[in-house]
Amino acid sequence: MSPVFPMLTVLSMFYYMCLRRRARTATRGEMNSRRALESNTRALPINVEIVQYAKEVLDFSSHYGSENSMSYTMWNLAGIPNVYPSSGDFTQTAVFRTYGTWWDHCPSARLPFKRTPSTFCSQDYVELAFEEPVYPTAVHILETYHPGAVVRILACSANPYSQNPPAEVRWEILWSEAPAKVNGPQARQFTPCIKQINFPTNLIRLEVNSSLLDYYTELDAVVLHGVKERPMLSLKTSMIDMNDIDEDEDDEKYGCGMDALNKQFSVVTLREWPTNGYFDKLPYELIQLILSHLTVPDLCRLAQTCKLLYQHCCDPLQYIHLSLQPYWARINDASLEYLQSRCTLIQWLNLSWTGNRGAISVSGFSRFLKVCGSELVRLELSCGHFLNETCLEVITELCPNLQELNLSSCDKIPPQAFNHIAKVGSLKRLILYRTKVEQTALLSILNFCSELQHLSLGSCVMIEDYDLIASMMGAKCKKLRSLDLWRCKNITENGIAELASGCQLLEELDLGWCPTLQSSTGCFTNLARKLPNLQKLFLTANRSVCDTDIEELAANCTRLRQLDILGTRMVSPASLRKLLESCKDLSLLDVSFCSQIDNRVVLELNANFPNVFIKKSFTQ
């Protein structure tokens, strides 16, 4: 036989396998139905591309701005550009709360969860709604200052303007990449090459990681390009992409391919093998140690290989610390149900970003905690919009050992629900950033939770009298080490005096954008004298900070590591030199928009104190 025939046979089989692969992945791939294969010789329909800016900002994890303003808020992402193509620091842009690694090196920093996939690096997110659902062809992100924070772009199958919610909500990753350092802070239009998806969308999610940035990233607008009709690829004009063969693996690589996760959680039929290989000869503890390096999906897959590894992979000791945040797009009631038997000893649980749009119900969350809550010490629920008063009541009743509770940006919880937190007297860390906690509930929490060491009340706009809150802290929370009062609108020198007298262990204090504090009252001098352990002090946008305050910090707070005095007009280069000479551990000094500190002074200070990052922002 001619040698050509075997080669033709191999090629035809390969071609058949590729087509079969495409047919199987039709719900995710590039072919819609068998008709797409049968009509590949027809002319493809002409699709007019639709270009649209975001109509509305639906959800976000944090922002630099105030809840009652537009400056530096995520809401600036709606509509046409305000700033682009200009570069610089502008209030009309969207800015997240943090940047760099400074927040990882302060007293309030939390320990990371193990088993987090290396491909999941998102720190913040924003979700944008557009007028028309389209099949995306391009996404343009207009970045106006310190670009490079966006690490993932996703599309959702749910139409936020539809009257009929879908039975299933799907998220697909359009683009994903590890954080990368961008040279220079100048504006740019970021247009990554996106993946084609098989459903129209008008809901786009951006996820960011600002850890490599030298300052806050600023976003001006997002432009969605797309077509109304689904693009069809002609087999005569396009080659089969070899990457399609590894599509499942790519999904797992990017952390969102969790369609089969619930099946992997469930009990499966295991093959009968005569032996378990060399694993039989290893000590139980050693196998447990090896498996502790696997991610949750990997554990679920490994459990299906043999009975021995199934036993190890289902051991509750493997789930002492569990973070489901990387898989937020696929976690639902069924996921929690399958995990219950494995999480009976769980101590740390991260459900941040999960459960939204009906994925987790109140009853599903309650059933999980009923089985798994007794040993919980740390519970992360940031941006958990399924949470309501019943959920907080369940937490306080079923988690008697809870020490850390994160409710950051859970802005759907009604104000009266926070009263339940006062029942958890063992709390050491409580994060209520951007919540609707009211003054009565907070006073009750402070009264009964005297073990608190870390408290975040940033952007809590429903508290009427922060002086009363500060007085209660000074009287009851003697162990407080870090306090975030970012953008509290009514604290005065009286509240600061009570706080400084009663909470002398404070190492971190954020008073950024607190307009009612005035240096002339002596409040900052009092802080410096009463709180010698301060390592981080943010007095952001307080125009009254003066040389006297800086000199008092230099004399009394020699352990200071981070200081933000952005926007002051009263601080001179001479007082900054005293501070830098006295505080040997200082690593961050933000003097942006300080009128007496020009670029020449910053260059001089950088030369004399090279270990300090001195930030001077600008606007063109």
Report on the structure:
The chain has helices spanning about 5-25, 35-40, 245-255, 260-265, 285-290, 295-300, 305-315, 335-340, 360-370, 390-400, 440-450, 465-475, 495-500, 525-530, 545-555, 575-580, 600-610, and strands at about 50-55, 55-60, 95, 125-145, 150-155, 170-175, 190, 200-210, 220-225, 320-325, 350, 380, 405, 430, 455, 480-485, 510, 535-540, 560-565, 590, 615. It has about 625 residues and is α/β, with parallel strands linked by helices. It has three domains: about 50-225, Galactose-binding domain-like (Jelly Rolls); about 320-465, Leucine-rich repeat, LRR (right-handed beta-alpha superhelix), CATH 3.80.10; about 485-620, Leucine-rich repeat, LRR (right-handed beta-alpha superhelix). The longest helix has 21 residues, at about 5-25. The protein is globular, with a radius of gyration of 27 Å. It starts with a helix and ends in a 5-residue tail after the last strand.
Distance between the termini: 77 Å
Uncertain runs are 1-16, 18-44, 234-258
The proportion of residues forming helix, as a percent range, comes to 25-40%
Mean model confidence by pLDDT = 88
Number of discrete helical segments:
17
Q: Beta-strand level of the residues, as a percent range?
A: 15-25%
The neighbouring-strand order within the major sheet is 10-11-12-13-14-15-16-17-18-19-20-21
Q: How many domain units?
A: 3
Mass-distribution shape: globular
Radius of gyration: 27 Å
SS-based class: alpha/beta
The counted number of beta strands is 21
Q: Summarize the biggest pleated sheet.
A: 12 strands, parallel
CATH architecture of the largest domain: Sandwich
CATH superfamily of the largest domain: Galactose-binding domain-like
Q: What would CATH call the class of the largest domain?
A: Mainly Beta
- What is the CATH topology descriptor of the largest domain? Jelly Rolls
Pfam families: DUF7885 (PF25372), F-box-like (PF12937)
Keywords: Leucine-rich repeat, Ubl conjugation pathway
Protein name: FBXL4 protein
InterPro entries: F-box-like_dom_sf, F-box_dom, FBXL15_LRR, Leu-rich_rpt_Cys-con_subtyp, LRR_dom_sf
